[in-house]
UniProtKB/TrEMBL annotation:
Pfam families linked: Ank_4, BTB, DUF3420, NPR1_like_C
Protein family membership: Belongs to the plant 'ANKYRIN-BTB/POZ' family. 'NPR1-like' subfamily.
Coiled coil ranges: none
UniProt entry keywords in alphabetical sequence: ANK repeat, Cytoplasm, Metal-binding, Nucleus, Plant defense, Repeat, Ubl conjugation pathway, Zinc, Zinc-finger
Official protein name in the record: Regulatory protein NPR1 isoform X1
Any one Gene Ontology BP term: defense response to fungus
Compartment annotation: Cytoplasm; Nucleus, Nuclear body
GO CC term, one of those recorded: nuclear body
Keyword Repeat attributed: yes
GO function terms (MF aspect): zinc ion binding
ANK repeat residues: 320-352
Keyword Protease in annotation: no
Amino acid sequence: MNSRVGSFDSTEISYGSSSCCVAMAADNAETPSPLKPEMSALQLLSRNFDSLFDSADSEFFADARIAVSGREVPVHRCILSVRSPFFKSLFSRKRGVVKFELKELAKDYVLGFDALVAVLAYLYSGKARPSPRGVCQCVDDGCSHVACRPAVDFLVEVLYASFTFQISELVALYQRHLLDILDEVAKDDMLVILFVANMCGKACQSLLGRCIESIVKSDIDILTLDKALPQQIVKQITDYRQELGLDMPDHISFPDKHIKRIHRALDSDDVELVRMLLKEAHTNLDEAYALHYAVAFCDAKTTSELLDLGLADVNCRNSRGYTVLHLAAMRKEPKIIVSLLTKGARPSDLTSDGRKAVQIAKCLTKAEDYYKTTDEGKASPRDRLCIEILEQAERRDPLLGEASVSLAMAGDDLRMKLLYLENRVGLAKLLFPMEARVVMDIAQVDGTSEFVLDGIDSKNLVGTKRTAVDLNEAPFKIREEHLHRMRALSRTVELGKQFFPRCSEVLNRIMDADDLSQLAYLGDDTPKERLVKRQRYMELQQVLSKAFSEDKEDFDKSAISSSSSSKSMGVMRSNGKVIDKACEA
């Protein structure tokens, strides 16, 4: 955790357009008048406890830990017990140094590290800190970051944590702030606030009532409400709509029985049953908004199978004006987005309020997640991956072509093509695991058998079926399974070039080396020939390392540029107070 500059009064709230801080900075005020001695002493006491929470040295005195997201926050039982009835009861049941998982303390809603820090810092100092900008800001340059989804998520998490830890004054503070920004919150994001306000019960009665009132008058359909909210709240909303006699379109009410049957089949991942229901001719996929339903609520495999039926319009709009690609951007699932784009979904289509899918994705993505760099071989954040896919889809060349010079030069030599494709896809799995997984799933690579070359230890290759084939034999006999494998691998490479050009460029630098294909075959090599190949391997390893360094530098520069142009966003970093277990491992 970082020490924050400036003191903040927990009874004051700032509603500046550049942040969602639940406090008022002292440096914005005029020169303060001299404080009474007792007030000065209280402020000093607050600062002392605040420094205890922030200091890296305080870990030595800590006698408890709270773990969340692979990190641990050292805390002091006596302080938390005095400040919170919840912690007093918790610590009284266990002696000695203890460790708790946050998900065990707050079981009904997922809390993040930053929300935990905000609540604990208040318990130590008695003052609410400003919300961390990287956590409360999205990556949409046109957003004021007052009520975007990252800001709402943080405020809601702190509200629920305050309620769980029985800190009534902090619950009241964050409830007031949410009430003040509620009119600026998107209706779909308001469902999150309503869900948590309902869990907080009487403590958030005002917030609950305001949210229900807004949702009643909105165009949010009953299926979305049914999936997002408890049944008693859904019934309350539908009853209010009927009592008010609002002139609601058909989609506000529950769908008819034929559409319900299709939705239930999708809930069961039974696309074959959907096909049978369509034969009854009571409805079709577009009238049932079946593809919208699958994209919003089903897994990527079911959505892909539904798309493969070829019976749905991928650019059809539902009654709220959303295409399936808009919903996929809200879902933040890269595999579904790529599946839709490969079937012809248009990334340029606008919602009724003038937003494209990529803008929706940007408004939902935390700046901290988007701008942080990804280490070599680590999975990229899903949110950032979705944005990159949609951005690339808007500017991509519709002609896919071959991936690089090496594959094009292979011509009709199937042996060389197979060798190239296996090497390229295998390398992609090592270097870009998340990106590779997305395109491999779309290309259905797992349904084919991997070719294992002589001289390669197949025990080190995991995750796919294998066929022991010597691609170095002459003549090479092509079989049907070879063709299936080659088509799947070719499709994988094409999709990688289409949606992840940054990754493809790194692979091209390595794969276009003329003698790479010979390195995998040791066969009857002499010791001298093996030494030469080893030296060449080391050279390629250096090329790989250099390519990664350049790639990360380019991304860091673009991140810094984008960050500085959008209100000089700062990303919070941790100090010695927080222990990152992933790094220790």
